[in-house]
Design goal:
The chain is an alpha+beta fold. It has helices at residues 2-8, 19-32, 34-37, 57-81; strands spanning 90-94, 97-98, 110-111, 115-119. It contains 4 helices and 4 strands; from the N terminus they run ααααββββ.
Length: 120
Amino acid sequence: DLYDLLETTQTNVTFPTSKLGRQLEVVARMMKAHKDRGVDRDMFYVSIGGFDTHSDVEENLVKRFTEVNSAIDAFTEEMKMNLLWNDTTLMQHSDFARTLIPNGGEGTDHAWGGNYFMMG
């Protein structure tokens, strides 16, 4: 079954222990086992919070970006080692934007729009 398959499918890279790192490690293991699962195409969803920065935006974003960068670095390295990177697309989206002008608490407030990036 899937649980047993994932338990025996190991990554070559040590992933960070952050929430995003752990999620991307599972995705990497799923992708590595795609032939054993009988699939040639997958879509996975991972998420993290902590971007609702009404105060101390700079400090909070440094922490969030560090988490995102280290998790994506490990995931990218793992995909390349398994020759899956050229068949992988990553998308990021946020359901709301932030104001460009800080509020009184060195943070930002909700704004219209959103932000997205895609690579792969």
